[in-house]
Amino acid sequence: MISNHHDRPGRGLRPRAVCAIAIGAAAFYCATAAHAQQSSPALTCEVEVGRINQALQSAHQPALCERCGQRLAQTLDSLYRIGVLPTFYTSADSAGWDDPQRRPAMMSGHSLAGIPDGADLLADIDSGFGPRGIHRLRYTPSNQPVAITTADRSVSIPLAPCTPGGAP
Questions:
Q1: What is the DSSP letter of 41?
Q2: How far apart are CA 82 and CA 76, in angstroms?
Q3: Domain ranges, residue 96
Q4: Are residues 101 and 61 in the same domain?
Q5: Which of 115, 119, 97 has the alpha carbon at shortest distance from 106?
Q6: 10: phi then psi, degrees, rounded to nearest 5
């Protein structure tokens, strides 16, 4: 005859103990997840620019120049905070540059924006001086940043929302 060990008292976990353990584990997980969300600092636009530079270098693309990075941080800050491009952008329609690589003297310090790209728009990421850079900010017609892309669209880096941190 085969003995039945399950009928013996004191063997195995009782249903109340199993429920208590499950409730305790769930409460611990919720508390840990809430703490992790609260303690993670917001991503500043300067940190996001650094992340973009690292991603560009990983993709064997040139990094953003120092001035380009500063202007990109300002642009992201402006788009996320107030929903408009900074004043150093000139509409591609109104710029009327004959040579897209050279800025007319009156446009020195400005970059092109509003360049159609399918359903989205592009804005140059450059210093505002010298030739246009190869990096573009892709954004929606409602001014929501989407990605950083190269002029030939071979590399596209999705953007993470960021907060102002100290962009001049």
A1: P
A2: 10
A3: 45-158
A4: yes
A5: 97
A6: 90, 0
Tokens (6 digits) for 1: 């005859």
- Model pLDDT for residues 107-144, shown as the tens digit of each residue: 889 999 999 999 999 999 999 998 888 999 999 999 99
DSSP string for 78-91:
HHHHTSS--TTEEE
100: CATH = 3.10.450.30
CA dihedral 130, 109, 88, 55 (to 10 degrees): 30
Instruction: Give per-residue burial for 97-109: e unless 16+ CB within 10 Å, then b.
Output: eeeeeebeeeeee
Q: How many domains does the chain have?
A: 2
What would the two tokens of residue 158 be? 């999705």
Phi and psi (nearest 5°) for 113? -145, 165
Residue 95 and residue 59 share a domain: yes
DSSP state of 90: E
